[in-house]
């Protein structure tokens, strides 16, 4: 069965960095676009970043552009989110998602349990 397992969250200071990982299994990872989304307490789900199957296209929310970088290693079935210059407003539960197609952002069918990121001094 499809599994998406996130790791790398934790406590960071404002201005600090974290690197999230999402290990995928149960499907042909290299055939699908992948994304990261986040949900802060009391707020709706925000699509943070996405990457096509071969990395040929990426998406970033305006709130994270220039600070976050998404990447993937198809040999390791893993997608990453490098988060730099963290702000308190980045505090949220971050989860990765599997899209329905290789080169389209339209729809996703699986997501992980998430990893908590807290940015505080």
Residue runs with pLDDT of under 50 for 5 or more positions: none
Topology pattern, helix = H, strand = E: EEEEEEEEEEE
Specify the oligomeric state. Answer: single chain
β-strand amount: over 45%
| Helix coverage percent | under 10%
Give the overall shape. Answer: globular
SS content category: mainly beta
* Main pleated-sheet profile: 7 strands, mixed
Number of helices, where a helix is a run of at least 4 consecutive DSSP H or I residues: 0
- What gap, in angstroms, lies between the N and C termini? 40 Å
Detailed description of the structure:
There is one protein chain. The chain has 121 residues and is mostly beta strands. The protein is 0% helix and 50% strand. It contains no helices and 11 strands. It has strands at 3-7, 10-12, 18-25, 34-39, 45-51, 58-60, 68-73, 78-83, 92-99, 108-111, 115-119. Strands 2, 4, 5, 6, 9, 10 and 11 form a 7-stranded mixed β-sheet that branches. A 4-stranded antiparallel β-sheet has the order 1-3-8-7, with no helix packed on it. Strand 7 (68-73) and strand 8 form a beta hairpin. The radius of gyration is 13 Å and the shape is globular. The chain starts with a strand and ends with a strand. The relative contact order is 0.31. The mean pLDDT is 96.
Characterize this entry briefly.
This protein is an all-beta fold and 121 residues long. The protein contains no helices and 11 strands.
Attribute tags:
mainly beta, 121 residues, 11 strands, 0% helix
List strands and helices in order, with pairings.
Blueprint: E1 3-7, E2 10-12, E3 18-25, E4 34-39, E5 45-51, E6 58-60, E7 68-73, E8 78-83, E9 92-99, E10 108-111, E11 115-119
Parallel strand pairs: 2-11
Antiparallel strand pairs: 1-3, 3-8, 4-5, 4-9, 5-6, 7-8, 9-10, 9-11
């Amino acid at each position: 069965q499809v599994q998406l397992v996130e790791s790398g969250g934790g406590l960071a200071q404002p201005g600090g960095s974290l690197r999230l990982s999402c290990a995928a299994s149960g499907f042909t990872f290299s055939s699908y676009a992948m994304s990261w989304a986040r949900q802060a307490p009391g707020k709706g789900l925000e699509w943070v970043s996405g990457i096509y199957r071969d990395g040929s296209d990426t998406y970033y929310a305006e709130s994270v552009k220039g600070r976050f970088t998404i990447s993937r290693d198809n040999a390791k079935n893993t997608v990453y989110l490098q988060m730099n210059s963290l702000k308190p407003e980045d505090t949220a539960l971050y989860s990765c998602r599997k899209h329905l197609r290789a080169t389209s952002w339209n729809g996703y069918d699986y997501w992980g349990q998430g990893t908590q990121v807290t940015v505080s001094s």
